[in-house]
Amino acid sequence: xxxxxxxxxxxxxxxxxxxxxxxxxxxxxxxxxxxxxxxxxxxxxxxxxxxxxxxxxxxxxxxxxxxxxxxxxxxxxxxxxxxxxxxxxxxxxxxxxxxxxxxxxxxxxxxxxxxx
Length: 116
Prior knowledge:
Layout: H1 27-30, E1 40-46, E2 55-63, E3 69-74, E4 80-86, E5 90-93, E6 98-103, E7 106-111
Antiparallel strand pairs: 1-2, 2-3, 3-4, 4-5, 6-7
């Protein structure tokens, strides 16, 4: 603010209101994206081809009508891509082919490059 003979400057520390990415495992997908905000974020079990152990991959989920969803995720190697769960029996990915099997209430998606 400026007055005719004086100026007032206000400074503040914003660090307390920010979450460090190290403290937020889904930070990549927690923020608002181009079309709005994610309905949920999570860490998915995932593994690269040839790995015996599962790790965790960040993901942001957008729910749509009729139990459908769109999932933005990062592969075990850190490459971002999208998987669409269309209706209750069809899944496609934006990178290559994806084989999907519904086991109980869990989808197991295997990409053509061997990632699960």
